[in-house]
Amino acid sequence: MESKNKVLAVLVALVLLTMGFAGCVSEGDEDDWKNPTQAIFDSLSVNETGQMVEVDFSLADKDDRYTKASGTLRVAIWDSDDFQMLDKTFDIKEKDFFSFVILGLTAASYELQIPYADLAKSHDWGYDALGESTERKMHATIWFEYKEETFTDEYNSEFLNPVIPEALLHPNDAPEGDLVVNNPGFVGMMVMCDATASSDPEGGYLDFEWEWGDGSTTPSILAGDEESHTYDAPGTYTITLTITDPEDAIDVKTVDVTVVWILAITVNEWGVVAEGDYVGQTYVELTIHNEDALAATDLPAAAFWLLDDTTGREAYNVVVPDVPATLTADGDLTLMVYFDLTEGFTATQIEVFDQILALP
User: Fold this and answer.
1) Structural domain ending residue among the three candidates 224, 259, 294
2) What is the chain's pLDDT, residue by residue, as a tens digit (360 residues)?
3) Are residues 10 and 109 in the same domain?
4) Chain center to CA of 152
5) Which residues, including other chains, have CB under 8 Å from residue 296's CB and lie 6 or more apart?
6) CA–CA gap between residue 230 and residue 219 (Å, rounded)
7) How many domains does the chain contain in total?
8) Are 149 and 278 members of one domain?
9) Helix (H) or strand (E) holding 182
10) Is 86 within a domain?
C-alpha cells in the first residue's frame, strides 16, 4: 500500500506508547487480537502529488490493544467554515490493514486514499466573518461500523489540520455589489450612497471605488461602503461603484442621478426704464420658484450681475428690493432689479444666485 512513509509516524507513536503515555498494543500473535471496541482517527492529510486526501485510522479492543476487522467506514470532511466536502462510506477489509511488530509489540493501521474528484470543492479562500485572513483547513470525523456496533472518532487538531490545496478550492466567485442611492435631487445637496449590503461569497474584505460622473472620484484607499457627493451644476450624472475582492475579482454597479437647481429662476422681461425713479437704468424682472415642494429653502445673500459677451460682469449702482431670508415650499418670488450700466456695455446675460441666464 502507498504512503509507507507514514510508518515512521507510527513508530514514533509506538515509542511513546511503550513509555506509558498512551497506546493500543498487544503482545500476542495476530490470531489473538480481539474484536474492536473503538476506532482511532490517526491522521488526516493531503497528498497533492497524487491528488488524494488520506485518512489513516486504527482499531482497538477493550484492552486498548490494536486489532483489525472488516466493516464499513463512513468519512465526513468539512472545511474551516463547516462546509461539508465529503460524506461517503467505504468497505474495509481486514486483510488491507497494514500491520507490523516492533519491540515485540504488534500495531496495525488502515490508510484510505480518497481522490480529489470525490470531494466537493470548498469556498473557503481563507477569510473569517470579518474578512480577516485565516488559514483554510479541513477537519473530519470517521464512523467504523463492525457487526451491529459503530465506533466514531474525529480529527480536529486545529493547527495540525491539513491546509486545503488550491485544487480543492472552488474557483473564486466575484463579489456581489449592492448600491442604494438617496438623491435629494438638487444642486449643492449631498447625494448619499450605501453599498453596505455588498458581499463576497468567500467572505473576503472588499474594496470600494467611486466615480461620480462629474470627473471626480473617491479611490479605494480613501473610500468605504458608504459615501456622499454633491454636484455643482444641474444635470444627469452616472455614479459608478467598483467593488473588488481579495482575489481582484470585481463587480460594477451604476446608478444615474439627476439634479436641478433648487431655485428655478425665470427672466420675465428686461429693458430700460423710460420714466420714474430709475429712468435710464436697465431693469430685469425675475421670478424665483422653490422647486422643493416639501420644505422652505433659504435664499442666499443677494448677488445680481449683468454680463456681456466680452468684458464680463457689470453691477454698478444695483438696486434690489428686500429679499426674504427663505422661500416657502413650492413658493414663488418676483423681483425687479435695476442696474446703472457703463456706457457701451451691452448686457446679454444675468447671474443670479450662481446661475447664469440669457436675457430674452
Assistant:
1) 259
2) 334 334 334 444 444 343 333 344 444 444 445 689 999 999 999 999 999 999 999 999 988 889 999 999 999 999 998 999 999 999 999 999 998 777 777 789 999 999 999 999 999 888 877 778 888 999 999 999 999 999 999 999 888 899 999 999 999 999 999 999 999 999 999 999 999 999 999 888 999 999 999 999 999 999 999 999 999 999 999 999 999 999 999 999 999 999 999 999 999 999 999 998 889 899 999 999 999 998 999 988 767 888 888 767 776 557 777 788 899 999 999 999 998 888 888 889 998 888 889 998
3) yes
4) 39
5) 290, 326, 327, 328, 329, 331
6) 16
7) 3
8) no
9) strand 180-182
10) yes
Give the SS3 label for residue 10: helix
Q: Based on the domain organization, do 50 and 158 belong to the same domain?
A: yes
Q: Are residues 99 and 129 in the same domain?
A: yes
**Long-range contacts formed by 149-157: CB under 8 A, 24+ apart:** 149/37, 151/36, 151/37, 151/38, 151/39, 151/59, 152/39, 153/38, 153/39, 153/40, 153/41, 153/57, 154/41, 155/41, 155/43, 155/44
Question: Domain for residue 233, yes or no?
Answer: yes
The residue type of 289 is: H
Residues 279 and 244 in one domain: no
In residues, how long is the chain? Answer: 360
DSSP class of residue 169 equals B
Q: How far is residue 44's CA from residue 5's CA, in Å, rounded to a whole number? A: 14
Q: How would you class 311 by CB atoms within 10 Å of its CB: exposed for 0-12, middle for 13-18, buried for 19 or more?
A: exposed
Whether residue 173 lies inside any domain: the answer is no
Structure pTM?
0.69
Question: Are 249 and 314 within one domain?
Answer: no
Residue 100: all three cell numbers together: 507490523
Domain harbouring 128, CATH code = 2.60.40
Q: Are 8 and 121 in a shared domain?
A: yes
- Does 8 share its domain with 135? yes
Give the domain range for residue 185.
Answer: 180-259
Any domain includes 128? yes
Report the Cα 163 to chain-centroid distance in Å: 24
